[in-house]
Amino acid sequence: MLKKLVISKLMKIKVAHSIPGRIRFKVSTLKDIPEEYMIYEKYLHQALEKLDGIESVEVHRVTGSILVTYNVKKTYEEKILKWVEVIKEIGIKNLDLIEKYGETNTDYVVDIVEQQLDEAIKNFC
User: Fold this and answer.
1) Tens digit of pLDDT for each residue in 87-120?
2) What's this model's pTM, rounded to 2 decimal places?
3) DSSP state of 28
4) Could you report how far apart the first and last alpha carbons of the chain are, in Å?
5) CA 26/CA 18 separation, integer angstroms
6) CA–CA separation, 52 vs 57, rounded Å?
7) Structure letter (DSSP) for residue 115
8) Rounded (10°) angle between helices 106-122 and 77-93
9) pLDDT tens for residues 53-62?
10) 80-108 as b/e, with b when 16 or more CB fall inside 10 Å?
11) Which of 8, 35, 99, 101 is 20 to 30 A from 92, comparing alpha carbons?
């Protein structure tokens, strides 16, 4: 149940600030995620970085923000925002899977979600 709660909290993401090459997302609920669940942060990085041009993803729990830097020659803000929506949709679609197997078989969940993200990026823009 807790992993499902974590995923649903991350779905509440908004753009706080943007300049070419950088987008700062505000996720006010980020501070509410228990420390032991921050080990799953790497999956957020992997999902965002599937989009060509994403250079770095920095999660700041204290400020409740995620900073994404990107190469403006390879991608642009609107495309990144659309990719974030795709990631959110895939996360929502898999909430039951995450709840059922997230604690006992994380590799299985990651494999399924990775396959869906890989398929989505192939058909993206």
Assistant:
1) 989 988 998 898 898 889 989 999 999 999 999 9
2) 0.85
3) G
4) 34
5) 11
6) 13
7) H
8) 140
9) 999 999 998 8
10) beebbebbbebbeebbeebbebbeeeeee
11) 35
Is the CB of residue 56 less than 8 Å from the CB of residue 68? yes
Contact 34, 73 (CB under 8 A): no
Our CA angle for 91, 25, 76, nearest 5°, is 90
Contact between 10 and 27 (Cβ < 8 Å): yes
Structure tokens at 103: 């604690």
Residues 6+ apart with CB under 8 A from 34: 2, 6
DSSP structure string for 73-97: TT--HHHHHHHHHHHHHHHHHTHHH
Supply the pLDDT for residue 6.
56
**Token pair 């929502």: residue:** 92
